[in-house]
Amino acid sequence: MGQSTPNCMCSWAFYTLFPFAEVLQFGGSLPWEKDPSKTTVACPDPDNPVVFELSRRELEY
């Protein structure tokens, strides 16, 4: 993940997802999720509600 908002992505969504993506990126898990490598996050934008599923993938070399 870079240091700026990805093109064509709402900043509200990005800044909401980022902390959860960081947890997964560095091997952490969220205690309320059944699958330690996945989480769902809702964007707080009241005009465009979107729910994202983030999942950790192993790198393929």
Helix residue percentage: 10-25%
Number of domains: 1
Number of helices: 1
Main β-sheet, spatial strand arrangement: 1-2
**Shape from CA axes?**
globular
What is the compact description of this entry?
With about 60 residues, the chain is of the alpha+beta class. The protein has one helix and two strands.
Structural overview:
With 61 residues, the protein is α+β, with helices and mostly antiparallel strands. The chain has one domain. The protein has 1 helix and 2 strands; from the N terminus they run H-E-E. It has one helix spanning 11-25, and strands at residues 38-42, 51-55. Strands 1-2 form a two-stranded antiparallel sheet. A hairpin with an 8-residue loop joins strand 1 (38-42) and strand 2. The model has no long low-confidence stretch (mean pLDDT 88).
Describe this protein with a few key phrases.
2 strands; 61 residues; 16% strand; 1 helix
